[in-house]
Amino acid sequence: MMSNAVLNRFLRLGVACLTLALIGAAQAEEAPKLVHKDGRYALFVDGKPFLMLGGQIHNSSGWPSELPQVFESIAALHANTMEAPVYWEQMEPTEGHFDFSNVDALVQGARQHKVRLALLWFGTWKNGQMHYAPEWVKTDTKRFPRMIRNDGEPTDVLSANGHATLEADKAAFVALMRHLKEVDSDAHTVITVQVENESGGIGTVRDFSAAANATFAGPVPADLLAIVHKPAGTWFQVFGGEADETFQVYYQAKYINEITAAGKAEFAIPLYINVWVSYPPAELPERRLDQPGVGYPSGGPVQKFVGLWRALAPAVEFIGPDIYSDDSGFYVDTIHAYRRADNPLWIPETGRGDSFAKFLFYALGNGAMGFAPFGIDQTGWNILGNDPPKAHAANFALLGPMSREIAQWNFDGKLKTSVEEPGQAQQELDFGAWQVTVSFGFPQNDGRRPPGTKDAHGVALVAQIGPDEFVVTGIDASISFHLPGKLAGQRMQILSAEQGRYENGEWKKLRLWNGDETDRGLSFVPGEASVVRVRLGKF
């Protein structure tokens, strides 16, 4: 018969095992995931909304030999996430034999430097070409067919109609995701993976091989007809002048969706795709034709095809535009094209120059989950210039300590931003019972309109954290509160204005602002990264 002491020991052991099991289950539930609420999205990391303030490294910087300077650059940027490529040609140099040394170096380095990772799978497509496919794929054109131009010439792009290519890419991506699960399922260093890179074809609108032409001459698949609500027919009968590009979109989206679904079955973290967007000719002089296969890779989810891609590739959790025009009108239009009810805003690539920095605030004002300038490491060669991304670094230093709070405020619909444009040196933000006047540039003399800044770079961020309480910050901006229909100071007052910062989720007060710091608006002058928590009252 078991003694009471032995019985109690077994009971304690059972409780301990149950506790460990529950902890393990809780950890499993804390894996990164996309959460949707009331029309808004958040990327949850470790169980809370996460704002990616990222930096994407150069195409050839994902090698262990480059990582010391890479992580130095990430630190200088004040980024919390590094976007880094994984190369199919390196990872599977011979078919079926995988080398994860680059991946492991990235994961271990990110942990050591306390940043997260967004890995970029350079597989079948990278910038509309096949340059990162392994040599055993590149040299076997029969098994892995290339896109053929309508004049019969082959291109250096793998065909989305090649079943063997799909299976090879899928097998490699599955191996990558399986390895990530083995090395990162508890630490959650890798928060998301990008499937392919700016997919599509450069050099031809679609594959004009004999096999692809036979498919094109046949009926449009029923699932596509159901999505576009069109009657049956051949591709040309149904889509007319857009038949070639829509054909490429359909098979490319299905191809990537199958790879994504297979990878997610191995390791269920958020998977996304990026897109080389369609630019007006004046915005991208080197690509003067707004034509698929010339101005942008044909088949990708450019602005006019975002909705179709969302329907055709449901395994892809979000689509992010790569934006390299600093024209504000185009940038904002592109943000609006990709911020949809079925697609959260995520900007995985943008220009590293100072003129692109203010677009972070446009993105945040539209609920962005992530924002990353490209080519932030100092390799000595950069198509976008070699000057350090100073303005991006200033933004990240300002917002980084409260990035978790910003992500939560955005997810709750409590955050608004203001961005200066030429001739718009003063703007209004509407919080219902409270209104906010944002004025850009200094000096701001009494009774005069604000001067604005010379290059229109002023920005402001305002978050409502209580009925009469706000957190505010900005660059080259002055922020005043007022009641609807009244001027600042009329029937309202600032009860307290605390300059401080967030540390591990807690507000730490540094000093109180008053007098000249509050009577003419809360002024966020150049060179000072200040955050102020304001309590307002009415009388």
Topology:
Blueprint: H1 4-29, E1 33-37, E2 40-45, E3 48-50, E4 52-56, H2 67-77, E5 81-87, H3 88-91, H4 101-112, E6 116-126, H5 135-138, E7 146-148, E8 154-158, H6 163-184, E9 190-197, H7 210-217, H8 222-228, H9 235-239, H10 243-266, E10 271-276, H11 306-312, E11 318-323, H12 328-338, E12 347-350, H13 359-365, E13 370-373, H14 390-399, H15 403-411, E14 415-419, E15 426-431, E16 434-440, E17 459-466, E18 469-475, E19 477-482, E20 492-503, E21 506-512, E22 522-524, E23 531-538
Parallel strand pairs: 4-5, 4-13, 5-6, 6-9, 9-10, 10-11, 11-12, 12-13
Antiparallel strand pairs: 1-2, 2-3, 7-8, 14-17, 15-16, 16-19, 17-18, 18-23, 19-22, 20-21, 20-23
Helix pairs in contact: 6-10
Summarize the structure.
The protein has 539 residues and is of the alpha/beta class.
Question: What can you see in these coordinates?
Answer:
The structure is a single chain. The protein has helices spanning 4-29, 67-77, 88-91, 101-112, 135-138, 163-184, 210-217, 222-228, 235-239, 243-266, 306-312, 328-338, 359-365, 390-399, 403-411; strands at 33-37, 40-45, 48-50, 52-56, 81-87, 116-126, 146-148, 154-158, 190-197, 271-276, 318-323, 347-350, 370-373, 415-419, 426-431, 434-440, 459-466, 469-475, 477-482, 492-503, 506-512, 522-524, 531-538. It has 539 residues and is an alpha/beta fold. Strands 4-5-6-9-10-11-12-13 form an eight-stranded parallel barrel, surrounded by four helices. Strands 14-17-18-23-20-21 form a six-stranded antiparallel sheet. Helix 6 (163-184) runs parallel beside helix 10. The chain is globular and about 75 Å long.
